[in-house]
Fold:
Amino acid sequence: ETSHPSHKPDDMNPLLLQVFRSVVWVYSVLTFLPWYLLSGAGVNLERSRRVKARSVSGRPAGPYRATDQLRGIQQKLVSSMHPGVDTLDKVMEHGAARFPRRDCLGTREVLSEEDELQPNGKVFKKVILGEYKWMSYEETYQAAVHFGSGLAALGQKPQCNIAIFCETRAEWMIAAQAGFIYNFPLVTLYATLGGPAIAHGLNETEITHIVTSKDLLQSRLKAILLEVPRLQHIIVVDSKPTSWPGFPRGIMVHNMDAVQELGSRPNNSKEEACGLAVARRQPLPSDTAVIMYTSGSTGIPKGVMISHSNIIAGITGMAERIPNLDETDTYIGYLPLAHVLELSAEMVCISHGCRIGYSSPQTLADQSTKIKKGSKGDTSVLKPTLMAAVPEIMDRIYKNVMTKVEEMSSVQRTLFVLAYNYKMEQISKGYSTPLCDRLVFKKVRSLLGGHIRVLLSGGAPLSAATQRFMNICLCCPVGQGYGLTETSGAGTISEMWDYSTGRVGAPLVCSEITLKDWEEGGYYSTDKPNPRGEILIGGPNVTMGYYKKQSEDFLVDASGQRWFCTGDIGEFHTDGCLKIIDRKKDLVKLQAGEYVSLGKVEAVLKNCSFVDNICAYANSDQSYVIGFVVPNQKQLTILAEQRGLRGSWEEICNHPEMERDVLRILTEAALSAKLERFEIPKKIRLSAEPWTPETGLVTDAFKLKRKELKSHYQDDIERMYGGK
Structure:
């Protein structure tokens, strides 16, 4: 269940485990007997083992739909959660009407900032943050109404696109709600996109107004303004008034507060003079709500057109999989709001009156890079109950904790591993483990505030080892989901009482899934024991297509339902849960005719403690796979010291002996995971530089940009394949 190389939890002496189990059982009987009687373990086991989806047609290819626990197969796909709430402006209205004084959006106050010199000579900016300051649902709604009215006063027209190019923060959501209310389709762009990609998106969507931050205006946007000739108004979300000299003629820069004030004035004379209609033009369900530019893992990003009804259907399906979701929940928002996972998660929260406290990857935890030592990270202050995460972040938490376990004393490590194995056994039976949670895992759980009850994972496959670690050490279920921008982020989410790993659950109530045979890869719906094929998602959550582009990946069936061909290969298990097993674009045919799934190789090797990130690569005219590895600095430094090697981090990574040692370790890990010999990289290159969205080598969801990685390492590819 874990892949930590030197001390696997399930390697412990069976006698020790039996003694530990007996002690915990006696203590539990004496102390927690009432809890055990009321725990509902039998119900949980029944839920986890029940059939969660079935083929509507009876054929193994599907389509598969979720099963209702009382009535069998879902006969009709669900498209909305509240009667009459069929557009996104009504979601916010509904929240403000039901929970007017309830906290809605929260931001921590910055108390101080300072530069801290690191031992390697680099300077890191550190912050000390205060408590969260909250806007109520009513205040948030009014702020959005005023901002939208102010934008209209500046010439923004209904059904004309407006761009948001900003970090995840409360102002992003206020600007988005203003767009929903006044029917301004939002063009969302990742804050880490490069200049050409930003200019492409703004020009393709004919943007005249853009909402951004002071930092992004200065660092990214200002340099390309001359390449965006239609742009007239830049609205900066930072609250402090600032003068903005040096901008091209014809471009006006405003502060968000000033635009909101403009929109709050009754009978605004400027509006009358300009003849502008600021009265709200309510959107239709079929109107475009968002043009979401993908992160561009395969080149120039494409804008996905998502209607109001698409997002409503998607969040309806997602909300159904989160048990007991209500206004008592607190969500921490830190992933890019320009990504469909974060936008959908926050809209789910708003639809149920939850609090949303904003954070960032640099301030998330007490140990995060921007948090000054001794002060509190955002999770410690907010204590969220709900959180969405991409596997990259969870993998880091897992590796950091397991490294600390290795540094424990023998007694502490033995206790941790015994507790780990005991809890793994108990949750497989439907039980929780309050004693272990309280005495052993409390400190690990406190890394995310100590109150997380549901963790949603999306954006990429989550390894079985990391998922099990989250279940056990963070004491919460992990709902692993599968969806794409093209399906409004919705597709599947595993049920919270399903503790199996490596699967993404059954179709959501808004979706159905069918499997299409892929002859080249050898995947067929008639395969035994489970049907396999390319995943096609259909339902009201499937988007309208790409902006100004045609695509054969979108289909419409005889009944008028839209489908999206994902390019991912899946198999349905007998209980109706889906497992992602391959991807068409990741499949490479080697010289001898063997097919290699690069994603499969990466998923296996990424679990190695020496690996922070890895990209497998293969040419069809070659007979073997190669790899680029971002090594774990702590593990590799220890290995270098054992070999008597000294030097800078770059020198250690470039040392041939280090490459050979890491390749040997990876080969052992691959063989133990039963990879075929032809799938195991024969040569690797260690990269001293981590891959971040800022480097342009991974997306904001930390998916590999294979095209950019190939260009970046072209010289190494030629070297490892025996070229010049």
Notes: The chain has three domains: 9-76+390-581, 88-102+131-322, 590-720.
